[in-house]
UniProtKB/TrEMBL annotation:
Positions of transmembrane segments: 36-56, 77-98, 104-123, 135-154, 174-196, 203-231, 243-262, 274-295, 301-322
Domain of life: Eukaryota
UniProt keyword annotations, A-Z: Membrane, Transmembrane, Transmembrane helix
GO molecular function: magnesium ion transmembrane transporter activity
Protein name as catalogued: NPAL3 protein
Cited Pfam families: Mg_trans_NIPA
Family note: Belongs to the NIPA family.
GO CC list: membrane
Keyword Transmembrane helix assigned: yes
């Protein structure tokens, strides 16, 4: 009797168990709490990072405008900014362990919103209400759109949760969708790097695409490292898995190269362009990597995915409007270009311009050496040659006198 009842019991319990597993990502209230905890940690971290960076910038500006001989790292304001910066980075790092990757990455728009608000509040110049509204209307609209987009991201974000154990990460790492994604990303990265280094394609989209490709791998490894640390703190030790240290090394390496490309972009382009275009490209690539590696959108319905995509688009538009209104730095022109006026001819000597272009020299009146010397940034001087009358071995003058004919 007992043997005959046991198969019936197993058949009755099997559908219940499979049903519980299939609906767990959507009905478990604890998963939504984890999403909320991760989103709040990310928002707190980005907000604190924005305040920290503005504090450090304020410290530099304050020292530059005063006669204080101290270095910036000897001021309390700079150290306070550094402490808040570390605190904010820890908050963002911890958020990856609770919420899906595709939800945390777009929340970096909070730092752009906070920077815009801080910049508006701490304006040093005098302004009238009409001028203020006309000048900062795009910033207000952008902040509103970014807030709406952030709300949609949190509300309709992916709700897939998985323990970041060594077995799960290894299984995702060798899955064919991620391997195919890695192959495409490596090929694209090599092509962009070739055009950037060999063909001098210093376009902002090329550089920030390199940053975005590296950043997608950075956030994937950050989530793995943060998740394994949290699981280890909860009692299930994961630090003895080799995959943990592989992810840690990849996280550090990609972050360093990403910072290097960002530094190169900041030397060529305005920070507002880097902030807007970089946010759009990095967020798009990171969401794609999260959906491929961690399968963030598995089991999500079409409505949630469409609303999440709408939230991303609104956040993108908000960040673009915020950065669009920032003042762009006007480059200093060290000399008046000879071809500034239409119809004026340049002075040439065998096709070599006497006065260099604006990007070639920063010395007023500098001459480009015809001997192809590398030091073109220093003004060229003509050597003084004393005339020796009556000597046969007289050297030719260092300059050439052009003889104009009557026809000219």
């Amino acid at each position: 009797m007992e043997g005959g009842n046991s198969p019936n019991l197993q058949l009755q319990q099997l559908p219940l168990a499979t049903a519980a597993v299939s609906v767990q990502p959507h009905t478990d209230s604890f998963s939504y709490k984890e999403n909320l905890i991760g989103a709040l940690l990310a928002i707190f971290g980005h907000l604190v990072i924005s305040i920290a960076l503005n504090l450090q910038k304020y410290s530099h500006i304050r020292l530059a405008g005063s006669k204080d001989p101290r270095a910036y790292f000897k001021t309390k304001t700079w150290w306070c900014g550094l402490f808040l910066l570390v605190l904010g980075e820890l908050g963002v790092f911890a958020s990856y362990a609770f919420a899906p990757l595709s939800l945390i990455v777009p929340l970096s728009a909070v730092s752009v919103i906070a920077s815009a608000i801080i910049g508006i509040i701490f304006i040093k110049e005098k302004w009238k209400p009409k001028d203020f509204l006309r000048r900062y209307v795009l910033s207000f609209v952008g902040c509103g759109l970014a807030i709406v987009g952030t709300y949609l991201l949190i509300t309709f974000g992916p709700n897939s949760h998985e323990k970041m154990t060594g077995e799960n990460i290894t299984r995702h790492l060798v899955s064919w969708p991620f391997l195919l994604y890695m192959l495409v990303e490596i090929i694209l990265f090599c092509l962009l790097l070739y055009f950037y280094k060999e063909k001098n394609a210093n376009y902002i989209v090329v550089i920030l695409l390199l940053v975005a490709l590296l950043g997608s791998m950075t956030v994937v490894t950050v989530k793995a490292v943060a998740g394994m640390i949290v699981v280890s703190i909860q009692g299930n030790l994961q630090l003895d898995y080799p995959i943990f240290y592989i992810m840690l090394v990849c996280m550090i390496a990609t972050a360093i190269f990403q910072a290097s490309f960002l530094a190169q972009a900041s030397q060529l382009y305005d920070s507002s362009q880097i902030a807007s275009i970089g946010y759009i490209l990095s967020t798009t690539m990171a969401i794609t990597a999260g959906a491929t590696f961690y399968l963030d959108f598995t089991g999500e319905d079409i409505l949630h995915i469409c609303m999440f995509a709408l939230g991303c688009l609104i956040a993108f538009l908000g960040v673009f409007l915020i950065t669009r209104n920032r003042k762009k730095s006007v480059p200093f022109e060290p000399y008046i270009s000879m071809d500034a006026m239409t119809g004026m001819q340049n002075m040439h000597d065998k096709g070599i311009a006497v006065q260099p272009d604006l990007k070639a020299s920063f010395s007023y009146g500098a001459l480009e050496n015809n001997d192809s010397m590398p030091e073109i940034y220093t003004p060229a001087t003509l050597p003084i040659v004393q005339e020796q009358h009556g000597s046969k071995g007289i050297s030719a003058p260092p300059y050439r006198v052009l003889e104009h004919s009557k026809k000219e």
